[in-house]
Design brief:
This protein is an alpha+beta fold and 161 residues long. It has two helices and eight strands.
Length: 161
């Protein structure tokens, strides 16, 4: 009962406040103004604009999918040179594994491959890491901690800004 009386009192108070104190500012804000646009006008009397039609907006920070799939053997070299940053998502839960799996990420140079990181996970689980890799290629290797071949799902996203 106390809630309803409080709500009713609040509504009555807001109505009185709106009708007395806030009446003039609201009425003043709602008035119209007489404006005349001198030009430039088109043949129909509308304001002439330089650009017409639908504008296309492109953002330079859009994320793009670089690679997505199930990895059972080393991947082919993946060109990530167009991106400033990549995000690697690693999952071993889709295959119902009950062991540990891993993903090794190597940077490919002109002479060799340099290990960048190893992601370990107890299956089923997911892991995500972000790396800044301007101007390079990478290769992925999957491995199981117990030595068996375990398929893992990998998705790599790149961002250019």
């Amino acid at each position: 009962m106390k809630k309803w009386s409080f709500v009713a009192l609040l509504i009555v108070g807001a109505t009185i406040l709106g009708a007395t104190v806030l009446l003039e500012p609201i009425a003043h804000a709602a008035q119209t103004t007489a404006t005349t646009i001198v030009g430039p006008l088109d043949a129909n009397g509308n304001v002439k604009v330089h650009e017409q039609g639908r504008a296309t907006v492109k953002s330079s920070d859009q994320t793009q999918l670089v690679f997505s799939g199930t990895l059972l053997s080393p991947s082919a070299p993946l060109d990530v040179s167009a991106f400033k940053e990549i995000r690697v998502t690693f999952s071993c839960e889709a295959h119902g594994l009950n062991s540990s799996a891993g993903l090794e990420i190597n940077i490919i140079t002109a002479q060799s491959e340099i290990p960048l990181d190893q992601i370990h996970a107890d299956c089923p689980s997911k892991a995500t890491r972000t790396y800044e890799l301007p101007g390079t290629s990478i290769r992925l290797y999957n491995f199981a901690i117990d030595g068996s071949e375990q398929p893992v799902d990998v998705a790599i996203f790149g961002r250019s800004n």
